[in-house]
Amino acid sequence: MEDYNATTRNGHQLIDFYDSDANTLDIRSNGLYPSKILTELRDNYDKRDKGIVHKKRIFVDMDNVLVDFDSGLAQVSEEVKQEYEGRLDEIPGLFGLMKPMPGAIEAMHELQKRYDLFILSTAPWKNPSAWSDKVKWVTQYLDDVFHKRMVITHRKDLCQGDYLIDDRGKNGTSEFSGEWIEFGSEKFPDWRSVLEYLNAKEKYPLHNYGR
Question: Which one of 16, 49, 61, 167 is the catalytic residue?
Fold first, then answer.
C-alpha cells in the first residue's frame, strides 16, 4: 500500500519534486499526492524561502559608463576617423581598444557585495567586431564580476531589474521598468556619486571605495 505520509521516495526527498505553483509532485509512477502532503511541502517551501535574502538587480551599460569611448578613439589614426566620420562606432576593433572609466572597476567590485549585477549594453548593428570586442573587454577587466552575466540588446526595456545605470535614454533605457540612473548627468557625474546614492537609498555602508 502507498504510504501517503512519506516524505521520501526511492531515496529522494519529495520536496525536490514539488511544484509550488501547481501544487503537484512530478512523480510519474504515482501522479498526484493527497492535499495534506502537498500542503505540508508548500509550507516547508515558504519557511525556507523566508530565510533567503534576494539581492536587488542592477544592470550596467558599457559605453561611457564602464568603458571610456574616447580612449579607444585616441588610438585610431586620423585617416580611419575620416573614413568613418559620422559613424565612428562602426570602426572595426574600436571597442577592444577602450579603457575603463575612472572608478568603474572598483565600483563594480563594491556593488557586487550587495547586488545582483549584469551588463546590459548595445552594440552597433553594422559593426560585428563590436559584439565580440565587448565580450573580450569584460573578460579582460571584469570577468570576476560579469562572467556569463552579459546581455547585448537594442531593447533594454525587455530586461527586468531594479536599477539600470546608463548614460543615454536610447534603446529602451527610458522605458526600463526599474529606476534609470543616468550616468554622467548632473546628479550622477561619476561612480562615487552613483555608489553614494545607491548605498544611502538601500542603507548600505560605502566601505573603502576610492580610498
Answer: 61
Residue 61 is a catalytic residue: yes
Rounded to two decimals, the pTM is 0.72
Please say if 63 is a catalytic residue. Answer: yes
Query: Given CA atoms 187, 192, 198, 201 in this order, what sign does their dihedral have?
Result: negative
Q: Which tens digits make up the pLDDT trace of 54-84?
A: 789 999 999 999 999 999 999 999 999 999 9
The candidate with the shortest Cα–Cα distance to 91, out of 125, 130, 123, is 130
User: What domains, with CATH codes, occur in the chain?
Assistant: 8-50 (no CATH), 57-201 (3.40.50.1000)
Catalytic residue among 16, 43, 49, 63: 63
